[in-house]
Amino acid sequence: MDQPIARYYELKEIQKQVEEELNELRSKLIEAYSEAGSAEEGEYKLVISYQERREYNDDRLYNALPDPSLWRLMSKADTGKISSLLKLNVIQEKVLADTFEPKKVPVLRVQKR
């Protein structure tokens, strides 16, 4: 049983290193190509697009919700739960008007031709 445990640990360490290197490369690529939006290098194509995400303010969201029991469902601003409440028509978009700051997040995509 020691061997699978040791291998699992070893793979998790490798995964951690790979994720760190990917984050570093992602940052460098976004910094270098953010203005262009796309670039081609050899047989690879890089595309940087921006996705708008909402960063909710807990206090403002709590005050905007029509029912305090809704806040108990979330306990903090969770965009996934807020989106679900919107889709289910439990809350309306207009209630959330001043509760968030839009943030543009770069999305990096690299394809091999």
Would you tell me the overall average pLDDT?
Answer: 87
Strand order across the biggest sheet?
Answer: 1-2-3
Q: Order of SSEs, N→C?
A: HEEHHHE
Envelope shape = flat
Structural class: alpha+beta
Number of strands: 3
Instruction: Please give the share of residues in helix.
Output: 40-55%
Described by strand count, sense and barrel closure, the largest sheet is: 3 strands, antiparallel
- N/C terminus separation: 43 Å
Roughly how many Å is the radius of gyration?
21 Å
Low-pLDDT ranges: none
- Per DSSP, the total helix count is 4
DSSP strand content: 25-35%
Question: How would you describe the overall organization of this protein?
Answer:
- The protein has 113 residues and is of the alpha+beta class.
- The chain has a domain of 79 residues.
- It has a three-stranded antiparallel beta sheet.
- Keywords: Coiled coil.
